[in-house]
């Protein structure tokens, strides 16, 4: 088993810029996060352009799809913004790649106190290795199939349709 | 799906006592950790006596087994010290409970910088919900069957026999 | 010696709202921060409306001045946004209150990784107890008189004029 | 003004060794801590052998004294274990070096949640620049003269004699 992690930005990877006071993107936290997890399964990391998922366009989703298509690995975890995680999952689900692809993200950035990022990554890494091929969303400690998940923005949680 | 988490101590749950300078046990961190994960799957928490797993005796393992036996839930995550995780897993595996039981822990306590605790919990919570009945150890981002796992104490990682 | 801490918001006290994704204000972190410092000098805390200092108007500065005037304590630390810390310091300096007033803040919010907030508070608490009456700004490990300090916004540091 | 920081170990600088499970010493955290403070006052760092202050012998205190004697700076902060901070302060106080020397430390290691280390360093750095020559202990947000301070081990706080 080998694992590929694809970083696309989202709340998980936001960084506070102390000069501008803006929460945006700089270098991905994923290399440090992966080291911290002490994972022994071989991991390949793809850092795509880091975006707020509200800013993701069709071309950006096509880039995520391409990263999954060219991956040698059968287990893929995608770090993604929560607001349009479902839309990207749908693009990947429709593509029927024959791989186990799990999208996850965070409600609180990794670098902010009380973040759920590391936990969510754990859920995604775990289930990506044991679920059958398909596209899934892992948030709130649950795993959802790509075609039966939505973000409840009022409650800030993912749930079935 | 409902999940039961059984806290037994171990490095994951150690607490620094500022009066004595000793890393030992106080209240479990699990209630705060569970809140932080924003899990929406219903979770029941059993806090057993918190022990360094090197101090675990047969009676302590019997208590863990009893907690699994009386649990209503079919998915159980056990927070355990790493040094004898394998021994407790063997007791549970031999009991053949027909439930999915995943043991996990941490190399660095939850309250210490760079801890793997939250990640490991994520892996365990994720796979406990999707693996078939059986007893597993989830460490280093991998899932091991209870009868094919050991801690490599020199390297500080879990591996197959 | 008794100490008064006046919270007015600023980067120090910003909070990430996970529902909106906005770094704004909620309850002040100061009660938790003060507990964490293990200060034994008696501390009184005034939580004024929490504001980004770019949003501070004359009326807001008047409120800070009033808090200093009515304080029984001769040592006062004010938690303030960095962008207009100098302007509030000037209002307090001109008022000539005969107390030792130290303004401080943070370049990174207290709840974000690598924050300077706790260090800056330490500097301010320390010097507020030993400097003669006057108004000072404590940032970057230095103490500046209120009438000889500016924020270099390009470098993100405080310096003399 | 230039500042010298002398690291001697103590709880402040303890590091959790994940292979042995022991809180001991490895590389000093001080370089990272100093970067985090965003101090603009020039700082020189002396990392002496890192010790639990209960293990400090006369020769170790003589080494701290020598570091203070050879320092070009008139403001010196010493990071020290709390249990014998007073003893080292007495050695330095008796030497009458004509410099402002402030000893500080922590009740909780820098790398453990809820640590007071960064705050204490702030207090020490602040007052080291404004107090007259002499030897002081800065803990619990207070500054004590070297000959009127003791650690109350039951309460875990510093107080006058």
| Helix share bin of chain A | 25-40%
Strand line-up across the major sheet of chain A: 4-1-5-6-7-8
CATH topology-level fold name of chain A: Rossmann fold
Oligomer: homotetramer
Overall structural class of chain A, as computed from helix and strand content, comes to alpha/beta
Order of helices and strands of chain A: EEEHEHEHEHEEEE
User: Span from first to last CA of chain A?
Assistant: 32 Å
Tell me the number of structural domains of chain A: 1
Kindly report the greatest chain-chain contact and the residue count on each side. A-B, 34 and 34 residues
The average pLDDT of chain A is: 97
For the record, what CATH class of chain A applies? Answer: Alpha Beta
CATH superfamily of chain A: L-asparaginase, N-terminal domain
Describe the secondary-structure layout:
The structure is a homotetramer of 161-residue chains.
Chain A (H helix, E strand, L loop, with lengths): L2 E7 L5 E3 L4 E3 L5 H8 L5 E9 L6 H13 L4 E5 L5 H11 L4 E5 L12 H12 L5 E6 L2 E4 L4 E3 L4 E3 L2
Parallel strand pairs in A: 1-4, 1-5, 5-6, 6-7
Antiparallel strand pairs in A: 2-3, 7-8, 9-10
Helix pairs in contact in A: 2-3
Overview of this protein structure:
The structure is a homotetramer. With about 160 residues, chain A is of the alpha/beta class. The first copy, chain A, has a single domain, classed as L-asparaginase, N-terminal domain (Rossmann fold), CATH 3.40.50.1170. In chain A, about 25% of the residues lie in helices and about 30% in strands. Chain A is built from 4 helices and 10 strands, in the order βββαβαβαβαββββ. In chain A, the strands form 3 sheets. Chain A has a 6-stranded mixed β-sheet, with helices on both faces. The longest helix of chain A has 13 residues. The model of chain A has no long low-confidence stretch (mean pLDDT about 95). Chains in contact: A-B, A-C, B-D, C-D. Chains A and B meet through helix 4 and strand 10 of A and helix 4 and strand 10 of B.
